[in-house]
Amino acid sequence: MTTATHSPDEHIAALRPKLVAFARLQLRDNAAAEDTVQDTLVTALEKHDTFGGRSAFETWVFGILKNKILERLRQQGRYVAWQSDDQSDEDALDSLFQDNGRWQATTRPKPWGEPDQVLENKAFWKVLDTCLIALPDNTARVFTMRELMGLSTPEICEVLEITEANCWVILHRARLKLRHCIEKGWLA
């Protein structure tokens, strides 16, 4: 929420780097990300007077960005060919577990610390951002739509024209890859 010392323009300008980073992650196209963020900022400035304070200002602006990204993805969806992620992940997944379904001793997840403290740590978010960028395009797109944008599986499937089964497989692979990457970058 704005305070007496900051104008709406200053609040929105301060959010711009985060908005651009998120849009680039989702759209994987710098020009499209810049255009989408610009549209978001214009909308936020035009509608700033309607911001009721029912959520954090940043959350409100990110909600606008989410809708702008979805509009763009729906428009592009018919022109983007979906590629299947590499199938070698199934073998990698099998190697994580014993025959009885328990974790292999060397692949068992490591504790990351207290969740609330981790989520407030800026270094953790930098590692997560880096790990998200390292994901294959399709995997990152599905994961961010689900976990960061809060879309349901049917909504994701409609926008990206994929099956629910494919969506769940992609989400599972994304979580495994992110866990591995975060453990290397955060816990190392």
TrEMBL record:
Sorted UniProt keywords: DNA-binding, Sigma factor, Transcription, Transcription regulation
Per the database record, which ranges form the RNA polymerase sigma factor 70 region 4 type domain?
Answer: 128-178
Position of the signal peptide: none
Secreted found in the keyword field:
no
- InterPro entries assigned: RNA_pol_sigma-24-rel, RNA_pol_sigma-70-like, RNA_pol_sigma-70_dom, RNA_pol_sigma70_r2, RNA_pol_sigma70_r4_t2, RNA_pol_sigma_r2, RNA_pol_sigma_r3/r4-like, WH-like_DNA-bd_sf
Give residue ranges for domain RNA polymerase sigma-70 region. Answer: 12-78
Among Gene3D superfamilies, the record links this protein to:
1.10.1740.10, Winged helix-like DNA-binding domain superfamily/Winged helix DNA-binding domain
What's this protein's family per the entry?
Belongs to the sigma-70 factor family. ECF subfamily.
Q: What is this protein called?
A: Sigma-70 family RNA polymerase sigma factor
The organism encoding this protein is Vreelandella gomseomensis
